[in-house]
Amino acid sequence: MRKWIAPVAVIAALVVGGAFFRDDILEYSGIACATTIKRAVPSPDATRTAVIFERECGATTPFNTQVSLVPKGQSFSPRRYPSFLSIGGQHALAIRWVGERALEVDLPKTDRVFRNETTVDDVSVAYLSAGRGPN
User: Fold this and answer.
1) Residue 126 and residue 122: Cα distance in Å, rounded?
2) What is the DSSP string of 30-64?
3) Would you say which domain of life the source belongs to (predicted)?
4) Which SS3 state, helix, strand or coil, does residue 18 take?
5) Which residues does residue 52 pair with via DSSP β-bridges, in sequence order?
6) Is 14 helix (H, G, I), strand (E, B) or coil?
7) Exposed, middle or buried: residue 75 (CB in 10 Å: 0-12, 13-18, 19+)?
8) Which of 88, 20, 100, 95 is nearest to 51 (CA)?
9) Is 73 left (phi over 0), alpha (psi -120 to 50) or beta?
10) CA 96 → CA 68, 118, 123, distances in Å?
């Protein structure tokens, strides 16, 4: 009965890894991906900014919504400041600082969460789901 667990885990890892690999190839190969900044939310002490942006890499790669942290005085670059949150589709994310080193992100209902890190540098990130509290 358990013989199927390992093959399923391998297939799942290949699918998820393939999505990230595909994005990396598109980004670093020179194939243009459109990056659109939707909103920037500075921290209370103004030492960093949470940047919400969308990526679109053509007809075969659907839109995704991402969030990165950018230090004060730096320009946003998805290559230099990789996202800590990446979800499939176009979403108007609600994001707020609840302290100088703490963020809350309201996640929409989606089954396509590609990345959702809970710590970025020295900032903790809490994900709230559909108004129900931390994820």
Assistant:
1) 13
2) S---EEEEEEEEE-TTSSEEEEEEEEE--TTS--E
3) Bacteria
4) helix
5) 39, 67
6) helix
7) exposed
8) 95
9) left
10) 13, 15, 12
Whether 131 shows a pLDDT value over 80: the answer reads: no
Handedness of CA 72, 108, 106, 91 (dihedral sign): positive
- Tens of pLDDT, residue by residue over 90-109, are 898 999 999 999 999 999 88
Structure tokens at 60: 């075969």
Q: Residue 26's pLDDT is what?
A: 47
Between the alpha carbon of residue 71 and those of residues 2, 45, 48, 93, the distances in Å are 47, 11, 4, 20
- From the list 54, 19, 14, the residue with the least C-alpha distance to 34 is 54
**Per the confidence metrics, is the pTM higher than 0.85?**
no
